[in-house]
User: Fold this.
Amino acid sequence: MKDSIKRVAEDLMKSKYAIALTGAGISTESGIPDFRGPSGIWTRDPEAEKRAYRSYAKFQKDPKEYWRDRLSGPSLLGDLDKATPNAGHYALAELEGMGILKCIITQNIDNLHQKAGSKKVLDYHGNAFKLRCVSCGGRFESREFDLDRLLIEDQLPPLCQRCGGVLKSDIVHFHEPIPTDMAQQSLEEAGKCDLMLICGTSAVVYPFALLPRMAKERQLGKETILIEINAEPTPLTEEMISDYLVQGKTGQILPKIVEEVRRMQLFTKK
Ligand code: APR
Assistant:
């Protein structure tokens, strides 16, 4: 493990534009379950996954009913308001602060990268603390709306303060298109990077899982290193899309990488 930590640190030191792609695995050490790991939400309750696949159609058919559902029970991921970043989130924020990591593209909706201090975060699957207008694409903080009052007064769905369009959760549901701005910016970042850290994702959900594949393809033109940090091998490992896997917990591995980069920086001018 020590050698792999050193190898990642060396690759990061050599990189000109490193980015990180993250998934639910980086938040499990904050007490938020992942989806497909051994005790994942979908692993434990396949029916819940089937229901999740129907959320977007439900919104399109009856936004009021969609909102009644959303406001009637707890989130599958637990109380995200109370969730706090773990050492893995802070390590990525530190790498950004050192000028090494330029961007995080996350599938997570928990806002923990932002809470950890990361500045450039693309919420590829949306953000649980935001609402998004389906007409103009405008995003608003959920706390700007008294959703419980709208429910009691039968005033759902919430309406866009800009164009009057219907608002849904910013969370991107299965079958829902990735918002154009996120898709565009993520493609640009994946196209620009010369190092991609892929942390805590099973890499089976598309189109997100295309990003490492695209970066790899471009490798012919330029050396792009793809490094997985994950509890288990994924299709990216098996298909040798990633150059190597550092197997283990992101909350343990990422801080060690930052420590090694700091040590190396002492001996080299970066
Ligand atoms: N450290 C490293 N890896 C971990 C850790 C950890 N502490 N905990 C779990 N993992 C690994 C799991 O073994 C698994 O390979 O992280 C991966 C998480 O995979 P998923 O549960 O599939 O989560 P993710 O890849 O983010 O799912 C993508 O699927 O359901 C949708 O929209 C949802 O954004 C989500 C998308």
